[in-house]
EEP domain-containing protein (Caenimonas koreensis DSM 17982), 252 residues
Amino acid sequence: MTDTGASTPTLTVMTVNIHKGFTSFNRKFMLHELRDAVRKVGADVVFLQEVMGTNGRHRNDPADTPHYEFLADEIWPQYAYGRNMVSTKGHHGNAVMSKFPIVHHQNHDVSVLGPEKRGLLHCILEIPGTGHQVHAVCVHLGLAESHRRQQLDLLCELVRGEVPDDAPLIVAGDFNDWRRRAHSILEDGVGLKEVFVSAYGESARTFPSRFPMLSLDRIYVRNASVHLPVVLPRKPWSHLSDHAPLAAEIHL
């Protein structure tokens, strides 16, 4: 984290759907390469989706280590995990890795009837020496538009009920919102603004990562500003995940 002045501390964030550590179409297990790539970004807070909460299903898995712990290693001493989907091969969900203390976290089940299990992982981060508490919500919404609409309404309810009106808030993750309907819902409902829309006029295309066509992944903020949000380069990310990661510098 850097501080551009006594009243404007900043932190960098990134978000990426890691597809349970596999490349597109589950062709190759890439968790070790993913860890190296995430480290090189150097973000203060990392939002992860589709992260295994067990040691996984592949012979190259780090033994007895949940994937978010393996990725965090010694770089992000604080992490939280929200289990969403359970199968015979283990369970996966959302995770937040942080260089700052996570003083509270709660996973909110926003699954709609059917096989898809989705969650909103809400974390409160304490930023040392600033007096700031930052609320962070890691999001992975459903594939069906009717489900996403209900889940966006539940996200708005979470923000109204659990986030103080004046607190810095970052909401990031995989919204599966290829029609870009979430922007107006979240801005009108709880004052969240998408960082690429604010900076460049439209949200970033992130899927599929090799030739991005759809805007599925997002970073929204409230009571904060953003400097130069970026889609991370295709090399090495296009062979590490089917989603291109996003990163941004947040000014509190």
